[in-house]
Amino acid sequence: MTGRAAALLGTGALTLPLWPAPWLGVPVMVAVVLVLIALDWRLAAPPGAIEASRHGDRTVRLGDTATVSVHLHNTSARPLRGLVRDSWVPSAGARVDFPGAPRIEISPGDRAVLPTRLTPTRRGDRPALRLTLRSYGPLGLAFRQRTEHPATPPWTLRVLPRFESRRHLPEKLARLRVIDGTQVSRGRGQGTEFDTLREYVVGDDVRSVDWRASARRADVLVRTWRPERDRRVLCVLDTGRTAAVRVGDEPRLDAAIDAALLLAALAARAGDRVDVLGADNTVRMALAGGAQSTLLARMVNALAPLQPALVETDFELIAGEILRRERRRSLVVLFTALEPGALGEGLLPVLPRLAARHRLIVASVHDPVLRDLTVRSPERVQDVYAAAAAWRALADRDRVRTALARYGVTVVDAPADRLAPLVSDTYLRLKALGQL
Q1: Residues in domain DUF58 (predicted)?
Q2: 379 shares a domain with 350
């Protein structure tokens, strides 16, 4: 029964004093209204006769807007007058974009399209929950409603990472080209491999002359060298409890994903193989490097649903996975938090095994609020305690950084907006020095 039926009953009640026998008018009036409600319910289009399907975007980048439409087909012989509600999870940011929504009218055999605009607020998979259809009768006194019908195919919108650091990629690629040219002009050195033969020009190092090739060509030829290609780069994302900490406006894991994407795009362009591993107390995802043209797209899609877990990270498991997957010497970039408890008890015991086989970089996001607390003039007693806690946290990070440096580990500790370019700069520096 709708509000219109209740209003009809109220109007009838006001006329009862005019009846010759008011006590008899009550059941008569109620009976008439009930008959009208039953007739109106019977004449309403059955929801089971409405066929529904979804069409639209399957992926969207975080911060952008996608459109997913519900297509309704009225297969009954009665017109559909009703309300439609397309429910999504709250983080999908659903907003109905249909004139007169959610009220619709569909004639028998006709179709209607109800677009929904989605502006997600979180990365990952955002599913559609249910489609609710309410069909009213021609008098508007009653309605039929079913939530499980019409059946719609499941629909999930994958929200990809922002990848805001891609704006740094042109500058990093320019530096990479400079490194390639510098290495060739300097000649052979650590971390280089043979490139081509060319004719000798004045100023070339005579030690680069290839005498056998010169004898065959009856001309003086010199060897040129370039930085070694096909190096191995492994990005390890710590998805434990520390990755869920929000630094600024985003979780620490999102800043790590952004930095890993920039590093992967740069390393792939440099001819290196990039693998990705996400783990805490179990392996959450693993992606093996492939063709350079599809690496970034596959990596973005694989990292999109990765979420932090509220568990302690098992660095023994991560070390075992690294040693099992990477047989050759590789550059391992571990994105984690510089916390003395997690690293001191978990990473430092297994660090000698990793450092003996691979070159390690530990990349971490620090909260600028800690620095601000140490330089701010305290005005209250609480500010003094907050400053002391900040000093202690910074001192703990320095001790962890010193302990990692003893094993030859390079530490990149930066704010969230600077982590990605600094990690890529460290990669370029190691590549220029031939230390990959």
Answers
A1: 197-385
A2: yes
Which residue matches tokens 């990477």?
Answer: 326
Domain shared by 220 and 316, yes or no = no
Encoded amino acid at 95, one letter: R
Assigned token pair, 244: 């869920």
For residue 18, what pLDDT is reported? Answer: 58
Contact of 423 with 431, CB cutoff 8 Å: no
Specify the CATH number for the domain of residue 118.
2.60.40.10
Please check the confidence at residue 174 and state whether its pLDDT lies above 80.
yes
Q: What is the pLDDT of residues 142-158, one digit of tens each?
A: 788 876 655 677 889 99
The answer to whether the beta carbons of residues 97 and 135 sit under 8 Å apart is no
- Cα–Cα distance for residue pair 59/246, rounded to 1 Å: 25
**Residue 124, φ and ψ in degrees, nearest 5:** 120, -165
Q: Are 134 and 83 in contact (CB under 8 A)?
A: yes
**Residues spanned by the domain of 343:** 232-432
Residue pair 378/384 in contact (Cβ under 8 Å)? The answer is yes
Cα separation values, 289 from 138, 207, 329, 383, Å: 61, 37, 16, 49
Which residues touch 51 (CB under 8 Å, ≥6 apart)?
Answer: 72, 73, 75, 150
Number of domains observed in the structure of the chain: 4
Alpha-carbon distance of 419 to 429, in angstroms, equals 15
- Residue 19 has what DSSP assignment? S
CB atoms within 10 A of CB 373: 19
Q: What pLDDT does residue 4 have? A: 64
Least confident span in 195-204, 233-242, 254-263, 355-364 = 195-204
- Give the angle 92-95-100 at the CA atoms, nearest 5°: 155
Which SS3 state, helix, strand or coil, does residue 20 take?
Answer: coil
How many angstroms separate the CA atoms of 388 and 56, rounded?
53
| CA–CA dist 236, 168 (Å, integer) | 21
Nearest CA among 329, 357, 360, 365 for reference residue 347: 360
